[in-house]
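STRUCTURE:
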């Protein structure tokens, strides 16, 4: 099953690179979501367990150094965040559902990292791929701010993702 997911992900990435399609949607009907929230390996399991999630990939996004390696990002200084990119079937699970899982698995009030991982590379950040994802991300953040389930203010950034897959550097 894992090999099939990896093969599917590879084919999706290759098709996107060749066609120049945007990350949010493809002709195959799958969509993308990209979230940073601490250690990327810790971010994957809650999403992998969801029906409709096809694959999760750990990587880096949001930095200024081309093609950084794990050690470079871990030391800080590249500007990248450890992140996961989720390939999902929007007919089975919606982006709003993914946001709900995301908010439940991070501390959105800590600007210095997540849980035991500290540094800018472990910041929480939502990278949206289209206007609808931006709207939903902002709406979900605003709803949390209104409910005030946290002691501090929400500092999770909502940022435009790159429009091509090579900008999400796999780990």
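SEQUENCE:
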């Amino acid at each position: 099953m894992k090999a099939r997911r990896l093969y599917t992900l590879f084919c999706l990435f290759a098709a996107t690179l060749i066609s120049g399609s945007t990350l949010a949607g493809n002709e195959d009907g799958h969509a993308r979501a990209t979230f940073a929230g601490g250690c990327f390996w810790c971010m994957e399991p809650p999403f992998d367990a969801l029906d409709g999630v096809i694959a999760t990939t750990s990587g880096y996004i949001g930095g200024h150094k081309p093609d950084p390696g794990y050690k470079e990002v871990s030391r800080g200084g590249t500007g990248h965040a450890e992140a996961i990119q989720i390939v999902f079937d929007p007919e089975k699970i919606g982006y709003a559902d993914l946001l709900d899982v995301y908010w439940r698995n991070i501390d959105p009030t800590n600007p210095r990292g997540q849980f035991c991982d500290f540094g800018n590379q472990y910041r929480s950040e939502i990278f949206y791929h289209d206007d609808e994802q931006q709207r939903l991300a902002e709406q979900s953040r605003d709803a949390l701010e209104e409910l005030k389930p946290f002691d501090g203010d929400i500092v999770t950034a909502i940022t435009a993702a790159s429009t091509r897959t090579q900008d999400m550097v796999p780990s």
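REMARK: The chain is about 35% helix and 25% strand.
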